[in-house]
Design a protein that fits this description.
The protein is an alpha/beta fold. It has 17 helices and 15 strands. The protein has two domains: 143 residues, Aspartate Aminotransferase, domain 1 (Alpha-Beta Complex); 273 residues, Aspartate Aminotransferase, domain 2, CATH 3.40.640.10. Pyridoxal-5'-phosphate binds next to helix 6.
Amino acid sequence: MTDVLTQSQTQSWQQDDAEHHLHPFGDSGAIAREGARIMTRAKGVHIWDSTGKVYLDAFAGLWCVNLGYGREELVEAAARQMRELPYYNLFFKTATPPVVELAKALAEVAPSHINHTFFVGSGSEANDTVLRMVRRYWDLKGKPSRKTIIGRENGYHGSTVAGASLGGMKPMHAQGDLPIPGVAHIRQPYWFGEGGDMDPDEFGLVAARALEDKILELGPENVGAFIAEPIQGAGGIIIPPDTYWPEIQRIVHEYDLLLVVDEVICGFGRTGEWFGSDTFHLTPDFMPIAKGLSSGYLPIGGVMVADRVAEVFKAEGDDFNHGFTYSGHPVCAAVALENLRILRSERIIETVKTTTAPYLQSQLNTLADHPLVGEVRGIGMLGAIELVEDKASRRRYAGNGRAGTLCRDFALEQGLILRATGDTMLMSPPLVIAPEEIDELVTKTRHALDLTLEALK
Ligand SMILES: *Cc1c(COP(=O)(O)O)cnc(C)c1O
């Protein structure tokens, strides 16, 4: 009886979805024909769809549910703040208690030279804000020609006009005449895909020096900033070779660029440190943050700003004409503050670093000798598996991502949510995943690889 009810309820949701909902990053026509998967509830690292099927969410929603689902403290923090003050803005000389407390807490966990945050509603808004702040900074410094920002091919910085322009996703650029003027791109440090015969360290230097070449091509007097993720997330969990970031830092320093380190995924423990900048010893001028800031429970983002930049903004004696109605929304800020409190009091990032991440990585590495696997790489609670037809030459299967799609769908069938970018399988589980859940994740991944190999034969 309940099954029949569940079925008819699912069909009715799918029909309403088909008739009234346009999907982000999806083919709404195809989804309307196939029926959307309707997710209804979740707890810990598991999520249920409307048919009652349970999945291990090895993607933490969309790289964001760092504390896992169902944390009552976050629900309570939101309810408390909603009763007290559900909304007020930060424009015109105003602040609210959760916002100032959150700004202070962020300064405590960020690298020591970063002590200010500008709040926004998302990672994309954070990067729009970065673009405006970089240009404003150079105006205030009396160097208005330094307007161009250099990003990377296959980088991801969000989906607004500025975010998608700073990012280097070709399918996004192809829709909407992007990038906007004043944005340039260099190659990515993706050794497995583009390193050819070079060894990774050699390739890392080559990829970094593309920045210097681009600066010289554009003229150093015209370049304001370089933006990059510490580890490319959406691009395929691309961990740069060890030589890459030190060389980038040298170049950024030599040409006096602002360094924007997009921490939207890496921030808040994903790599086993508070920030990717800690992992790679970076000294950013700007750190866009979002996702794990609130564990995804409510939308909030920010731009963390280094002291040397904040000083310039504070000294200008004029308004910064930028902000959002929901900049530092008090309910979102209260949830983010509680999220930070839990991360600290339960020592979650320390546990990731010393215990669960090493376990995840060692278990993932047992997949390296699977015939379909060309490389397993990871750090902290990030893992990527490259699917190939030939291991030695790193040659892919024909079909442009067909192997990845097959593997993702076989994983789903068994109740495991992975993501596929081309033929690269990605995972980014909640930071609180337990060792036995890691076992479940790896066992199901292995099974999905077996089924994929079989299907490709
Ligand atoms: C997700 C993401 C963004 C965009 O964040 P939204 O909240 O989706 O706007 C920006 N940068 C990186 C690195 C991301 O992963």
